[in-house]
Write a structure and sequence with these properties.
about 240 residues; alpha/beta; Rossmann fold; six-stranded mixed beta sheet; about 25% strand; disordered C terminus
Length: about 240
């Protein structure tokens, strides 16, 4: 789905550039769940921004479904991001004045999808995350787990090729976090989406197909993958 080759990125701090990514390489596959772990400042968020076509590397190459898009212009990146990439942010980033339904529909409005198609897509994904009955509520009427389910629905509604998630369980208690992340994993597989998650949360690791540790801007594969947990999803918290 997405391949990063020899990616380098630095930010200027005062007069000197501060390297954040060094010769980073990563491949993400459809239907697979990849986690990035590492301490703050190790480059996880910067790498997510590059995966999500929000930020450009200083050097290296980005391949999308086999095509080198490194030097595509801003408009081309924006169109690809809107059509094919879903985002799940730390803190949910839901629009408080909008209903659950409208928050989920928002990415489709940006792509000028016909209203009938929006209605069908939103209804289907809300059913998938178990929030059909919450469609007319606003985010402040929901629990943390329910708000994260709305964020998952919003990310999945356009059936993206790639989902980029930054600390998706940071504000959730253990039971809710496990239910939410298993739901994301199972829905991503059924939708055929690749998922890349940056996290400090070790509770996510049993759900990963691939695990990488970031260390001073480099991506290091972690051997001996933990066996996947196959527990039933409980009703939403």
């Amino acid at each position: 789905m997405l391949t990063l080759q020899h990616i380098a990125k630095a930010y200027r701090v005062g007069a000197l550039p501060q390297p954040v990514l060094r010769d980073a390489e990563l491949t993400l596959h459809a239907g697979e769940f990849t986690a990035l772990v590492g301490p703050s400042g190790s480059g996880k968020s910067t790498l997510l921004n590059i995966c999500g076509l929000i930020d450009r590397p200083d050097s290296g190459h980005i391949h999308w479904q086999g095509q080198d898009i490194t030097h595509h212009n801003h408009a081309e990146w924006t169109q690809l991001r809107r059509n094919a990439i879903g985002f799940i942010f730390q803190g949910f980033n839901l629009i408080p004045v909008m209903t659950v339904w409208d928050n989920v529909a928002y990415p489709l409005w940006l792509t000028h999808t016909p209203q009938a198609e929006i209605d069908d897509a939103v209804a289907a994904v809300l059913q998938a995350v178990g929030l059909t009955d919450m469609a007319r509520k606003r985010p402040d009427e929901l629990s943390g787990g329910q708000r994260q389910r709305v964020a998952i629905a919003r990310a999945l509604v356009k059936r993206p090729n790639l989902i980029v998630a930054d600390e998706p369980t940071a504000s959730l208690d253990q039971d809710t976090a496990l239910n939410v992340i298993q739901l994301l994993r199972e829905l991503a597989r059924s939708y055929g989406s690749a998922v890349v998650v940056a996290t400090h949360d070790d509770r996510l690791l049993p759900f990963c197909d691939h695990l990488y540790r970031m260390d001073h801007g480099r991506i290091l594969p972690v051997p001996n993958q933990i066996n996947h947990v196959q527990t039933p999803i409980e009703e939403t918290a």
